[in-house]
Amino acid sequence: MNSDQIKLGKERAPHRGLLFALGLKREDLAKPFIGVCNSFVEIIPGHCHLNRVGEWVKQCIREAGGVPFEFNTIGICDGIAMAHRGMKYSLPSRELIADSVESMVAAHCFDAMVCIPNCDKIVPGMILGAIRANIPTIFASGGPMRAGTHPVSGKPSDLNTIFEAVAAENNHLISEAELQAVEETSCPGCGSCSGMFTANSMNCLCEAMGLALPGNGTILADDPARMELWKAAAYRAVEMARNEGPRPRDIISLASIDNAFVLDMAMGGSSNTVLHTLAIAHEAGIPYDLHRINDIAAKCPHICKVSPSCSYHVQDVHAAGGISAILKRISEVPGLLDTSVVTVSGRTLGEVIADAEVKDNDVIRTLDNPYSVDGGLSVLYGNLAAEGSVVKKAGVYPSMMKFSGTAVCFDSQEEACQGILNGKVKPGNVVVIRYEGPRGGPGMQEMLAPTAYIIGAGLGESVALITDGRFSGATHGACIGHVSPEAAEGGLIGLLRDGDRIDIDIPNRTLNAALDDAEIAARRAAAAEWKPRDFGGWLRRYAMQVGNASSGASLR
């Protein structure tokens, strides 16, 4: 066992002495040592219950014959960090989490690991760390939040409902009392935010990649069935430790990355999944061309739509059969899903989904009745995005699939939020938010606030937004992110001026500014040298090391 390095031989007597100080008995030394990588913090609703989850997982590991050792990572709540300086730390935290996981496993020689993430960067951060450590690892997330109930309409509500209500109240479409009622009822308890936002998207993709058991992405945080999932993951971790596999590098492959994007296209997941999955491929040493995503989208029908793109929430997906049911249905498309890949269960993906059943054809549509014949995400190219940009096509209004408008430029998210709320943005505009990329931000802030303000102001079908930053999974509308090269790299987005015409053509996957080569060259020659924003500390190092969004914003 990997842990033999710290427990066998006379020279390891000091190591054993320290283990005995923890309460271990000599008979425990023959058992597999299981790391329990928890992301419990009290400031994130998706994580505030994970201390109890960790205790349950450790109890189950002991029952299965293993010795658990719990350790924690940091976690940032994107909702609370949104629209202020704190959001600059969100994406960079992915790298700190990955480094922490790698460090803990390398230093303490665990035989296997159970990862308990839930939100946003924590899931991919743990995956990156697990790939580096490459010991048998199973993911068992904290589970999604239940949807709230709108106090006036009685319809399902969630975090995005609150953001949009801010703009609605600002435009006198609802009262301040209604806004307060919405904020008090839309997030009713623990769990990752209830729509198909980034956290739930990544937890669902873990099933498609083979890193988690069925139900990981959709069983509610407060559902008793979640206890059984955590127990099964704990028992499986002990079994994998004894069998010495499968390991993350056995599971993560070109085929499993493709499968993740197939699911993403079928269910219209967050655009952040592109950023994180590219980083996972990069960490595993798998070259992954962005054009491959469009190739998958062209073949994959969009059969499941979830908030923020419609009123369904993750709990509805689970009731309809869950991720296995989506994968089972989409596997009927020839040559799309590779069901032969190995999963953390020890079975192939095909064996895992063999008995799945779609229980609601409204939530998970049939192949002959999709929302669209192609996938829910698209990568756009053009003179504004020579290295690509990403749009959540599933959340774009049909009338906005092709759109030409005049640019209104902002050099930060804060400027954009103020401009939108102050009425600077009008129908027919394309909001341009630049210098918010991985390097320029630094940290590639999410843009949920400005996009929600556009929707809340009633401009969702008359205003588009492009940025070298990124979007929350709660974003919907004609919002194009990850524009590469970013402004800080000299990308054309940094040379745009108010009034420039921007042409967006999502069906044909293009994003262009109506500027000829001579005008672009003249503007580039006249442009002032970009001066990095220096926030000091960790962000300074991050800005120096981070790569382009087109390769997952991985560190160089």
Please explain how this structure is put together.
The chain is of the alpha/beta class. The chain has 2 domains: 31-142 and 190-353, Rossmann fold (3-Layer(aba) Sandwich), CATH 3.40.50.2300; 383-551, Glucose Oxidase, domain 1 (3-Layer(bba) Sandwich), CATH 3.50.30.80. The protein is 38% helix and 12% strand. The chain has 21 helices and 14 strands. It has helices at residues 4-7, 13-21, 50-63, 78-81, 90-108, 122-133, 159-170, 176-185, 198-209, 224-243, 248-251, 254-267, 272-283, 290-299, 314-319, 322-330, 349-353, 413-421, 448-456, 517-526, 537-545; strands spanning 33-38, 67-72, 112-116, 137-139, 148-149, 156-157, 378-382, 385-391, 402-410, 429-433, 464-467, 479-481, 501-505, 510-513. Strands 7-8-12-11-10-9-13-14 form an 8-stranded mixed β-sheet. Strand 13 and strand 14 (510-513) form a beta hairpin. Helix 7 packs across helix 19 and helix 12 crosses helix 16. The chain is globular and about 75 Å long. It starts with a helix and ends in an 11-residue tail after the last helix. The mean pLDDT is 95.
How does the SSE layout of this entry go?
Blueprint: H1 4-7, H2 13-21, E1 33-38, H3 50-63, E2 67-72, H4 78-81, H5 90-108, E3 112-116, H6 122-133, E4 137-139, E5 148-149, E6 156-157, H7 159-170, H8 176-185, H9 198-209, H10 224-243, H11 248-251, H12 254-267, H13 272-283, H14 290-299, H15 314-319, H16 322-330, H17 349-353, E7 378-382, E8 385-391, E9 402-410, H18 413-421, E10 429-433, H19 448-456, E11 464-467, E12 479-481, E13 501-505, E14 510-513, H20 517-526, H21 537-545
Parallel strand pairs: 1-2, 1-3, 3-4, 9-10, 10-11, 11-12
Antiparallel strand pairs: 5-6, 7-8, 8-12, 9-13, 13-14
Helix pairs in contact: 3-10, 5-6, 6-13, 7-8, 7-19, 9-12, 12-13, 12-14, 12-16, 18-19
